[in-house]
Amino acid sequence: MRRHDREITDRNEMIEVMKKCDVCRIAMNDGEYPYILPLNFGLSLEDDTVVLYFHGADSGKKYELFAKDNRVSFEMDCSHQLVLDDEKKTCTMKYESVIGQGRIEIVPEEEKMKGLKILMRQYRNEDFPFNPAAVPRTTVFKLVVEKMTGKRR
Predict the structure, then answer these.
(1) 153 falls within a domain
(2) Which one, of 102, 101, 84, lies nearest residue 93 by Cα?
(3) Fewest Cβ atoms nearer than 10 Å: which of 23, 64, 82, 121?
(4) Coil, strand or helix: which one is 145?
(5) 153 or 98, which is more confident?
C-alpha cells in the first residue's frame, strides 16, 4: 500500500468497516477480463476466519466461473463523504474500504438456512421469516477470506 498513513492494520477494525458496508464486489477469473459482481452479503467469524455469505438464483455465469476457478478477490467500501476546499480549489473523498482474496464454496443444502440468516443479519437486527418456497430455489455460497487489507481516509 502506497499510503501507509491510511492503512487499517487492525483486523477487528477491518471487520467493523465490513459491517458498515452494504455491498461486496467479487471479481472472478473470466479469461481475458475479470468478471465482477456487486452482491449483498453477510459476515461471519468462523474459527477466527472471516467468511462472507452470498445468495443467488440456481444458475448463472458466476457459478460457471466458480466451478473453473474458485479463487476470487473482493472489495467493499462505505462512509463516503466529498470534501471540498474552496480556498485551495481541491476536492477529495473520505471513505473506508476493505479488499481481499479468498475462495468461494457453494454451501451444502443443510447449511443453507444458516447462511441466509447470516446474510440477513447484515441488514436487519432481527430474524427474517423466509418464504419456504423460495429457499430451495436459492443458492447460497460463501467466500472464505484468506487475506485482506483495509484503508481509510
Answers:
(1) no
(2) 84
(3) 82
(4) strand
(5) 98
Range of the domain at 121: 4-148
Cα–Cα distance between 71 and 67 in angstroms, integer?
10
Q: Where are the beta strands (DSSP E) in 1-153?
A: 7-8, 24-30, 33-39, 42-46, 49-56, 71-85, 90-106, 139-152
Q: Measured between alpha carbons, how far is residue 127 from residues 10, 53, 91, 124 in Å? A: 30, 16, 42, 7
Q: Say how far apart CA 143 and CA 104 lie, in whole Å.
A: 4
For the chain, the domain total comes to 1
Grid cell digits, residue 77:
467500501
Segments in 6-153 forming alpha helices (H): 11-20, 61-68, 112-121
pLDDT in tens, 122-152: 998 877 787 878 888 899 999 999 999 999 9
Question: Does residue 51 belong to any structural domain of this protein?
Answer: yes
Tens of pLDDT, residue by residue over 41-71, are 999 999 999 999 999 988 889 999 999 999 9
Could you tell me the CATH number of the domain that includes residue 15? 2.30.110.10
Contact between 27 and 71 (Cβ < 8 Å)? no
